[in-house]
Amino acid sequence: MSEDLNSVIDDAMKEIEEAGDAEKLDQARVNFLGKKGRLTGILKGMKDIAPEERPKVGERVNAARAKIEESLAKKKQEFDEKMLAGKLAAEKIDVTLPARKSEQGHLHPNTVALNEVKKFFVGMGYQVVDGPEIEYDYYNFEALNIPANHPAKDEQDTFYINDKLLLRTQTSSVQAHVMEDRKPPIKIIAPGRVFRADEVDATHSPSFHQIEGLVIDKNVTFADLKGTLAEFAKRMFGEDTRVKFRPHHFPFTEPSAEMDISCFKCGGKGCRFCKGEGWIEILGCGMVHPHVLEMRGIDPNEYQGFAFGIGLERIALLKYEVDDMRLLYENDIRFLKQF
Ligand code: DAH
Question: What is the Cα–Cα distance from 3 to 147, expressed in whole angstroms?
Answer without folding.
Answer: 119
